[in-house]
């Protein structure tokens, strides 16, 4: 067939084989437009006759209609040979069919653009979707099908086309608003609401566009105009959406703000975990500009900042990441490699820094690569020098993620082909001869830093004619190394600049010989730290070295514990810390919980750690460190099960790095297996609450496998903890095996509470696998244990309620769920309460009480947020989305589902098969009801939320949750003993 183009969404136009064909006869136009309106479908000849002669066709309309069709065939196919059947306008039994492709008829092209736009928006590509929707609308040159406008028979078809046009406009405005282009659509919206004043979606979009364009008064006026229009013309009030918008505009609600998105990419949560700078960067403005400019070079994706230790590589990388991260759509991520000791740890450190969880058996590098694959961000790998053999990780990430940029810091370059090296020299030094004028001298970078840090200890410190030469010499003596200058400047508190130079020249001259294996610049830095160290009194030196045992910023109580028992008259920890702070070797601060803590620069911490390795009592220091954190775990662990749960969780979370260090030492060659077993036995529930258990599970399982002869009272809790962590990773068979071994150990130790708890765990696992007869038998066995705790009784109710629900006995399931929720509120255990309320919400929803189910799930979400543990939040959001979908509230449902899906995807987590089917069914139902545009916009909006942000959005829009109150309906305990049962940890 030859080339053809038919325009019908405006004045009729036909182009055949590149030539415009006039269609002068009105009757020909009517027939062609009627066939085009129903293109690629058979249009009955009788129907064409009714349309053509306006309901009064002649007695024999067939011959005349055939003439019109023949003329149209000649117009559409001017080069068709005689005797050859028409392919464009074909005869069919009882009628005719116009055969055209999408790019040959504007109506079909409109539908194709619309479908492509819907698919793009549904996939999260909002900018592409907006382009395709705009292309669809540009095909309309109203009025569409002008010769058919007065044909009553075609009224429904024409109304459908017009509705499609207006709906497409509305979809386009929704997408444009989601892209932050509110100011671009205000005029169009004002024009359309004046033409179509009774379309609420247009009014709502206009209000939002005006508000986001800082025209709040106009937005409020638009709300009131719409209300008056509906009342005056239709006698009704506007719909709920417009009424809600008016209230939000009046109180200038934050939810009306424009989203921050990048139009070229799917909207998502930005990464931003850069460490806070403790001091301003001085004298490195030029270097900062040079590093940032490297990434503007064509093809530059990897930059390594090299230089001596103490040159300020980390500080420069922090500043560069902050600046570059602002221009990266997905932000910047920071990975501190200095605590690592093995190359194999690098992928896990990157995964953890990205906020991801690598499930057992999965390669953390693949998890990180999958996360970074579609993102455009800067990843900083700080302190790479001692892990140089990890260079393949860098190449793998660059290969997997084409938009990724990496910045590394190291003593030397990585030696990779895509690498751009930036060698960071010491700070520029002032000339010794001839001396600079004072005004210029104080702006030289090395002098500027010295003055800046000197004023921190001597507020009136300045350069003048009397000390200019001395300070210049001091900068040279320190080789312009920022850390050396900072350490030396700290001595200006008690030394004059003249004495400081004299001391440095006397002591540093002999030190480099002891460090000949280091580069010259590093010798000066190490010597400077050594010099600062030697200036300390003996008790100060000892405490400084002991601080090297800490992985994070320790609290004063932890430092006291590491010092151990002190002889009479020994200086207090407070006095010694003040002295070390005076030497700028540490910084004191108070954390959010009110604890006084100590922070050390990483280079100083490493120096202290190296010195600790030379200390004869190193093993004792590390033991005292581990014993302190064990004591902390033993004091706070039981609190994780009750009313003190929030404070206990936060306190343990603040010490997470040192708890990990204590566990690693205890399970190491010089450690203590007894101490390690006690740590696992106390901390497994804390790890379970965090939702991050991969490393801890591996350590716990290896520990219990390596200690078969340990005392049962130590081994049983550790086995139970290892089993639960294994279960959390979805390794159910191994978890059941470990729980059975834990049961044997509890029986040997005579711990009836532990026996009951472990039997209940086995019952829960049996129920999860669908083996309800075994679950029921084990539940009864757990309840028969002497002195069974309230927690076990609640767990038994949960198992029985699940059994009843799955058996279809929904009334009994609801009653059991209510009983378990009532008892759980008495424990004030937010983690357990969330699980129990989710089960109760499912039964409540099944009973048709969607409002009650929503309130229960909001309470579960609130409890989880108060606790601060995100482990179950995604599941709670999925369940609430199911309730919203049952209430036809598809937009908020999709936002929650998208946030939960993004959380799991970014962490490489997966749902079990049953849960996957349930969540997919909710998504499919919401998608089908919302349509592709609404689905795409809601899903894109949800993907840029963290689960915590999504949960807070729920709480802002939902009813006030009721924590630890009473549950509606009757809640009966299964035994009077419940009232007096223990409510602490499972086996205490």
Automatic annotation (TrEMBL):
Q: Where is this region: Disordered?
A: 965-988
Q: Name one GO molecular function term.
A: DNA binding
What positions does the DNA-binding region cover?
1-100
BP term (GO), one: regulation of DNA-templated transcription
Arranged from A to Z, the UniProt key words for this protein are: DNA-binding
Q: Which Gene3D superfamilies match?
A: P-loop containing nucleotide triphosphate hydrolases, Tetratricopeptide repeat domain, Winged helix-like DNA-binding domain superfamily/Winged helix DNA-binding domain
Alphabetical list of InterPro entries matching this protein: BTAD, NB-ARC, OmpR/PhoB-type_DNA-bd, P-loop_NTPase, Sig_transdc_resp-reg_C-effctor, TPR-like_helical_dom_sf, WH-like_DNA-bd_sf
Q: Where is the OmpR/PhoB-type domain?
A: 1-100
What is stated as this protein's family in its record?
Answer: Belongs to the AfsR/DnrI/RedD regulatory family.
PANTHER family given in the database record:
HTH-TYPE TRANSCRIPTIONAL REGULATOR RV0890C-RELATED, REGULATOR-RELATED
- Name by which UniProt lists this protein: ATPase/DNA-binding SARP family transcriptional activator
Give the organism, scientific name. Answer: Pseudarthrobacter oxydans
């Amino acid at each position: 067939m030859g080339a053809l183009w038919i325009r019908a969404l405006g004045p009729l136009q036909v182009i055949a084989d590149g030539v415009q064909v006039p269609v002068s006869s009105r009757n020909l136009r009517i027939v062609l437009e009627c066939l085009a309106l129903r293109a690629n479908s058979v249009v009955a000849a009788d129907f064409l006759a009714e349309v053509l002669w306006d309901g009064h066709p002649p007695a024999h309309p067939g011959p005349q209609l055939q003439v019109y069709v023949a003329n149209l065939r000649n117009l559409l196919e001017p080069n068709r040979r005689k005797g050859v059947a028409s392919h464009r306008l074909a005869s069919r039994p009882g009628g005719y069919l116009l055969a055209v492709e999408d790019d040959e008829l504007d109506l079909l092209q409109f539908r194709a653009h619309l479908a492509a736009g819907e698919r793009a928006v549904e996939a999260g590509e909002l900018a592409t979707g907006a382009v395709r929707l705009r292309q669809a609308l540009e095909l309309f040159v109203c009025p569409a099908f002008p010769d058919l406008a007065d044909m009553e028979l075609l009224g429904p078809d024409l109304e459908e086309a017009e509705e499609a046009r207006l709906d497409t406009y509305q979809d386009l405005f929704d997408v444009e608003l989601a892209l932050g282009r509110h100011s671009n659509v205000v005029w169009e919206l004002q024009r359309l609401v004046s033409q179509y004043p009774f379309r609420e979606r247009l009014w709502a979009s206009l209000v939002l566009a005006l508000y986001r364009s800082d025209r709040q008064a106009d937005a409020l006026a638009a709300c009131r105009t719409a209300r008056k229009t509906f009342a005056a013309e239709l006698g009704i009030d506007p719909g709920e959406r417009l009424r809600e918008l008016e209230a939000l505009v009046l109180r200038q609600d934050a939810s009306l703000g424009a989203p921050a998105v990048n139009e070229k990419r799917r909207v998502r949560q930005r990464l931003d975990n850069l460490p806070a700078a403790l001091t301003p960067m001085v004298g490195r403005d030029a270097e900062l500009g040079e590093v940032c400019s490297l990434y503007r070079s064509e093809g530059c994706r990897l930059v390594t900042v090299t230089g001596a230790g103490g040159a300020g590589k980390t500080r420069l990388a922090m500043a560069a990441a902050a600046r570059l991260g602002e221009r990266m759509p997905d932000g910047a991520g920071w990975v501190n490699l200095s605590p690592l000791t093995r190359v194999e740890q690098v992928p896990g450190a990157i995964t953890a820094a990205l906020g991801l969880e690598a499930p057992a058996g999965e390669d953390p590098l693949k998890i990180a690569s999958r996360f970074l694959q579609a993102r455009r961000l800067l990843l900083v790998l700080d302190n790479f020098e001692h892990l140089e053999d990890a260079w393949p990780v860098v190449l793998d990430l660059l290969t997997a993620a084409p938009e990724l940029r990496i910045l590394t810091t190291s003593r030397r370059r990585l030696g990779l082909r895509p690498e751009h090296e930036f060698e960071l020299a010491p700070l520029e030094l002032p000339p010794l001869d001839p001396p600079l004028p004072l005004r210029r001298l104080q702006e030289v970078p090395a002098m500027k830093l010295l003055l800046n840090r000197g004023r921190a200890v001597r507020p009136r410190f300045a350069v003048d004619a009397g000390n200019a030469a001395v300070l210049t010499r001091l900068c040279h003596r320190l080789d312009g190394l920022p850390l050396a200058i900072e350490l030396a400047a700290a001595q200006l508190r008690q030394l004059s600049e003249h004495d400081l130079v004299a001391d440095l020249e006397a002591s540093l001259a002999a030190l480099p010989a002891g460090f000949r294996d280091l580069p010259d610049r590093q010798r000066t830095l190490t010597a400077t730290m050594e010099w600062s160290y030697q200036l300390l009194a003996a008790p100060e030196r000892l405490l400084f070295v002991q601080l090297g045992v800490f992985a994070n910023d320790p609290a004063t109580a932890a430092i006291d514990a590491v010092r151990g028992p002190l002889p009479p008259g020994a200086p207090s920890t407070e006095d010694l810390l003040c002295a070390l702070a005076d030497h700028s070797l540490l910084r004191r601060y108070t954390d959010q919980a009110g604890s006084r803590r100590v922070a050390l620069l990483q280079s100083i911490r490493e120096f202290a750690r190296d010195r600790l390795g030379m200390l004869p009592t190193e093993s004792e220091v590390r033991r005292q460190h581990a014993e302190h954190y064990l004591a902390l775990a033993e004091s706070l662990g039981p609190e994780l099960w009750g009313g003190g749960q929030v404070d206990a969780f936060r306190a343990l979370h603040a010490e997470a790095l040192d708890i990990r260090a204590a566990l690693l030492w205890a399970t190491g060659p010089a450690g203590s297996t007894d101490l390690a077993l006690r740590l696992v036995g106390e901390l497994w529930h804390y790890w379970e609450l965090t939702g991050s258990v991969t490393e801890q599970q591996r350590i716990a399982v290896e520990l219990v496998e390596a200690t078969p002869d340990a005392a049962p009272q130590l081994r049983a809790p550790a086995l139970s903890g290892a089993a639960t962590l294994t279960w959390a990773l979805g390794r159910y068979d191994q978890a059941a095996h470990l729980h059975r071994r834990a049961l044997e150990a509890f029986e040997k130790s005579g711990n009836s509470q532990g026996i009951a708890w472990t039997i209940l765990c086995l019952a829960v696992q049996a129920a999860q696998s669908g083996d309800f007869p075994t679950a029921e038998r084990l539940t009864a066995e757990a309840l028969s244990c002497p002195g069974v705790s309230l927690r076990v009784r609640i767990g038994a109710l949960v198992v029985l309620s699940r059994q009843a629900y799955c058996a279809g006995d929904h009334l009994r399931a609801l009653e059991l769920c209510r009983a378990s929720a009532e008892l759980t509120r008495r424990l004030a255990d937010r983690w357990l309460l969330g699980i129990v309320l989710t089960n109760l919400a499912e039964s409540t929803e099944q009973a048709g009480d969607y409002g009650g189910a929503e309130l229960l799930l909001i309470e579960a979400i609130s409890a989880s947020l108060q606790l601060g543990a995100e482990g179950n939040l995604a599941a709670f959001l999925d369940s609430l989305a199911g309730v919203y979908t049952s209430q036809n509230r598809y937009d908020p449902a999709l936002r929650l589902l998208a946030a939960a899906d993004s959380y799991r995807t970014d962490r490489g987590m997966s749902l079990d098969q049953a849960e996957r089917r349930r969540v997919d069914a909710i998504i499919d139902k919401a998608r089908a009801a919302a349509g592709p545009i609404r689905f795409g916009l809601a899903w894109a909006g949800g993907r840029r939320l963290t689960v915590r942000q999504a949960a807070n959005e729920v709480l802002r829009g939902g009813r006030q949750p009721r924590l630890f109150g009473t549950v509606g309906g009757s809640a009966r305990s299964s035994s009077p003993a419940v009232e007096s049962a223990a409510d602490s940890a499972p086996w205490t």
